[in-house]
Specification:
It is built from five helices and 14 strands. By secondary structure, it is of the alpha/beta class. It folds into two domains: 155 residues, Rossmann fold (3-Layer(aba) Sandwich), CATH 3.40.50.10790; 98 residues, Bacterial fluorinating enzyme like (Elongation Factor Tu (Ef-tu), domain 3), CATH 2.40.30.
Length: 263
């Protein structure tokens, strides 16, 4: 069973090993694949959950995410309480299990066949994703009838924020929350892009490599999936050919606002 672990522990952190070990204890057939995202970045986690969960995968594939900034309550925590564990059953047959924090389920909210709370306590350990949640995830994976609690109101899950950096890949490409067609420019249109205090010239493109080396392209990226109606959802990227857009724009963070205008 393929189990994607999406978390903000940090690449190579001991926490990934501990969580994978605990998941294997409760799901001996699990084959963990680790995907790190920036600290507290529920937007990046949500983007990864959708990219992995709304595309084809082997039967039984599970996504286990833990990005839990514990920002649902600003008061002092009792027994390390935090956001509750949620389960999304997706049209692909994949189940995504993780804390319902921030935008973690925003990208799959409308596509999910079912959204429910997991029948597990939300407090009792500082390291809940190791000590409490793997057993609950295993119960969901094997279909135990007592593993799920009440449905989640979709209106309680926030929309995907517009015009933001959603994910930064290893090449420095900036995957955005602009959907293809949402902010349309004719191919070849010269653009001005601002992220924070950094700014650069760019060109609208129908494909990332349809620009010269050294140019920034605003183009449909490689990330996307089918919506509930069978249509294609594709997200735009800022891409510096033969370079890193992330470095060019001064190392922005996931969630930073992107401003694009014609110049």
């Amino acid at each position: 069973m393929l189990v994607h672990i999406v978390a903000d522990y940090g690449a190579g952190d001991l926490a990934f090993a501990e969580v994978a070990q605990r998941l294997k204890l409760h799901l001996p057939d699990a084959e963990p694949v680790l995907t790190p995202v920036p600290a507290f970045s529920t937007l990046a986690a949500g983007f990864c959950i959708a990219q992995l969960g709304l595309n084809e995968a082997a039967p039984g594939t599970l996504i286990y995410h833990n990005v839990a900034p514990r920002q649902d309550d600003e008061n002092a925590r009792v027994r390390n309480a935090g956001e509750r564990l949620a389960v999304a059953r997706l049209p692909t047959g994949i189940r995504a299990i993780g804390v319902n924090a921030g935008h973690a389920f925003s990208f799959v909210r409308d596509a999910a066949d079912e959204l429910r709370w997991a029948a597990v306590a939300a407090e009792g350990s500082q390291f809940r994703s190791r000590d409490l949640f793997p057993q609950a995830a295993a119960a969901v994976a094997v279909g135990r009838p007592d593993a799920l609690a009440e449905p989640i109101e979709r209106l309680d899950i926030p929309d995907v924020p517009a015009g933001r950096i959603a994910y930064i890949d290893g090449y420095g490409n900036l995957k955005t929350t602009f959907r293809q067609g949402e902010k349309h420019f004719e191919s070849g249109t010269k653009l001005h892009v601002r992220i924070g205090r950094a700014q650069a010239k760019a060109v609208a493109s129908d494909g990332s490599f349809a620009v010269e080396p050294g140019q920034v392209a605003f183009a449909p990226g490689s990330s996307g999936w089918k919506d509930r109606d069978g249509g294609r959802v594709c997200w735009m990227e800022l891409f510096l050919r033969n370079g890193s857009a992330w470095e060019l724009f001064g190392h922005p963070s996931v969630g930073d606002e992107i401003q694009i205008e014609i110049r």
